[in-house]
Design a protein that fits this description.
Number of strands: 13
Shape: globular
Radius of gyration: 20 Å
CATH architecture of the largest domain: Alpha-Beta Barrel
Order of helices and strands: EEEHEHEHEHEHEEHEHEHHEEHHH
Strand content: 5-15%
Largest sheet: 8 strands, parallel
CATH topology of the largest domain: TIM Barrel
Number of domains: 2
Helix content: 25-40%
Oligomer: single chain
CATH superfamily of the largest domain: Aldolase class I
CATH class of the largest domain: Alpha Beta
Length: 374
């Protein structure tokens, strides 16, 4: 049985799979277009997207906006599929990047690392200024039903607008996590528990407006069986990041991808990020040195994240992730999801999608077989 489709407003994805946005050059137009061509939703990450621009240190705002426009255009040249952009609320250029994404007709804007309470303002303002309709879907990323409720109520009261979908991201995700460090391993915050809570929460708002608000499960989803599990819990689809890093089409350096292949369970660690949130990464000498106090304060040139306290942090998160993306892991580190030890090779996006389909079929057949026996 084929994986089901997923509908978000007037968008219909052939697969219920969103490729997670992975910043500082991990998911750009190359990976996003490959996922879109395979039937999923490809996502360009906005965080430090202008890292290769010559003026990134002198004019980071313009460098990032220019690069965002270029990557969206490249993706559109490579695919007729669905393309989204992931923009962290904590970015200092958040408002400008949301507006740029909408102006350049991306299908969706995903936004987490904070509550995007003002995001509809940018869409509605553009529609009024340009005297035309922009159809970009707005999708907050949340870590609880409470956050989903707060966003929905704020958007309704201030803009008469509801989220087009929600991504609910659990504590097994890679990169920055929306949980306290002590809660990451607590069963109270497991994704299997969070998804039904968010599904129940959005029903109230679906009833008010008479339209669906799909919930997309994220964080620690690895196999086709996992996809079936979360669809059974009420999710309309899933978001996957770590699996897509280990693909030929991923925009990162091969050495970055190989760090995923080489990772063991003991290598997965939680770090304290300069952004002010815990993050999951692959342990290496850079992280060990940082923990031992070997890193020194730096001069911030990127000014990329509003919550970064440069004077208190021992390293620049943007520089560390940029070095890692380029394969220079001696001067940086790789964010990863909790399932990274299960990756044992690099494959194409098409091969990954085919394997997820087979695993989904096997999980479905297993359930059907149990029912027949019963």
């Amino acid at each position: 049985m084929a994986l089901p489709t997923m509908t978000i407003g007037d968008l219909r994805s052939a697969l219920p799979i969103v490729q997670g946005g992975m910043g500082v050059g991990i998911s750009l137009s190359g990976l996003a277009s490959a996922v879109a061509n395979a039937g999923g939703i490809g996502v360009i990450a906005g965080a430090m997207i202008g890292m290769k621009e010559p003026d990134i240190a002198t004019d980071p705002v313009e460098a990032n906006l220019r690069a965002l426009r270029v990557e969206i255009a490249k993706a559109r040249e490579l695919t007729q599929g669905i393309i989204g952009v992931n923009i962290m609320v904590a970015l200092t250029t958040f408002a400008e990047m949301v507006r740029t994404s909408i102006e350049n007709r991306v299908d969706l804007v995903f936004s987490g690392a904070g509550l995007p309470l003002d995001m509809p303002r940018h869409l509605l303002a553009l529609c009024e200024e340009k005297k035309e309709e922009f159809k970009t879907k707005l999708v907050p990323i949340v870590s609880s039903a409470r956050a989903a409720s707060i966003i929905s109520k704020k958007w309704l009261s201030r803009f008469n607008y509801l989220p087009d979908a929600f991504v609910v991201e659990g504590p097994k995700a890679g990169g920055h996590l929306g949980f306290k460090t002590e809660d990451i391993d607590s069963p109270d915050y497991a994704l299997e528990r969070l998804v039904p809570e968010v599904v129940d929460c959005v029903k109230e708002f679906e009833d008010k407006r008479g339209r669906a608000i799909p919930v997309i499960a994220a964080g620690g989803i690895y196999s086709g069986a996992d996809i079936k599990c979360f669809l059974d819990l009420g999710a309309a689809g899933v978001q996957m990041g770590t699996r897509f890093v280990a693909t030929h089409e991923c925009d990162a350096d091969e050495r970055f991808k190989q760090s995923y292949v080489n990772a063991h369970e003991k290598d997965v660690t939680i770090i304290k990020s300069p952004v002010g949130m815990p993050g999951r990464a692959i342990l290496n000498k850079f992280i060990e040195d940082m923990r031992e106090g070997a890193k020194k304060p730096f001069k911030c040139v990127f000014k990329c994240v509003s919550t970064c306290e440069q004077e208190k942090t021992p390293y620049c998160i943007a520089a560390a992730l940029l070095n890692a993306m380029r394969g220079n892991l001696e001067k940086g580190f790789a964010f990863c999801g909790s399932n990274v030890p299960r990756i044992n090779g690099i494959q194409s996006v098409r091969e990954l999608i085919d394997s997820l389909q087979r695993e989904f079929d096997e999980a479905l057949q297993c359930v059907m077989g149990v029912r027949k026996e019963a």
